[in-house]
Amino acid sequence: MNEYTRREEVRATFIASAILVLCIAVAVLRLVTVEGRLVPDPGARRQAEEAEARVAPARACALAGEKLIVEIDLFKAAAKSARMPDPGAAPPAPPPPATSTKGRPPRNAPPPPKPKEPDKQGAWASAQPLYKQVKTLAGCREATEALLGARVNAIPAWEAIAKAAAITPPGAAEAEQFEAAKQLLSLVADIQADKVAQATKDAEAAFKANAERDRDRALTAMVREPLPQGVFSRRVAVSVGVGLTVCALFISYLGVRAASMRRLATLLPLRDAVRSGRPGMQAAEILKTAAAHNSGEPGLVIGAAIGGFSAALLAPRDADLFVAGVMAGLLIGLGAQWAFRLALGAGRWRARTTELAEVEKPAIPIVLVLSGVKPGLELEFIQFLRSLPPADAAAAVEKLASQAEERILAAADAGAALTHGKPPPG
Prior knowledge:
The chain crosses the membrane at residues 12-32, 236-256, 298-315, 321-340. 70% of the residues lie in helices and 1% in strands.
């Protein structure tokens, strides 16, 4: 900045800087502190659904545990009717041979009766209901012990059930079916099925309690919705938006400085023209320089600040809109600035000319020149002056000042004549 910088330009730069700092500070604070909307917790809802899904298998396990006790008793009764060997009983002893009264076997004694053969037909059919419950319970141990822990008194029964479930279903041969049924009976006949049934029942109750608890929690649990990820990451978007506004302010400052240096380079050499007897050239250049609009781009700065501020307030969750708001504000602000300059026209020309004259102090009083320009015709005068070559423009300004001076002197003489009671000179 120097003495050729207009007060209007300094004032506009200061106002634009203040607006920029305030708007962008609020916008950045808003963008940094914004949080997503409160929405129902999908994790809690998913957990409740999973807990609810575990209740049905737990119920099936509890039912299988209850049925296991009944099916074991039924199968043991069926096995006894079919003369299936009891796995826990000792093999039957052969009947003693018949003897005579003298201790010798009698002649022509009948042979001892043969034991009845087991009824192999239908052995596996009677075992299938028990086998079904065993297969169901074999898949229940992991979930039950994961929830309740391993119960020592139920471990042998669980292991026997696992071995029984591993039996391969027999084919159509009766002997094969009988052996499979006998193997199943040997594994589960004496297990503590009530321990397994109680464990599955307790697990079902625990699953139901967990499902109810998770269901209640899912109705009230809320989480913050994640902020959307746009083209830029949030940090990059904020940095880009702020960087654009700073660049706009820097461009505006450079514009003001360039204009003041241009005025300096234009008017400073003309001081020598006054000393060389060409005062009109300096006055004419002052008039033309003052007609130029203000330099700097305060509209660019203010538009970028307001655009970013508006985007941050209206849509703080989308950081990309902050960048878009700044860019749109740059264009809108620049357009508004030029529209203001066109609407202002030459309305500030007299004040700007007087301000430059205070700096240059031309030999021809600028007040005389300005008094010769009729109000409302400033724009036409400026266009006329710009259309003339420098020498003609200087002569026109000198003539305008001379005419204004003559009018002033004539008015002074007329005033003096009236004071002394004489008529004014014709």
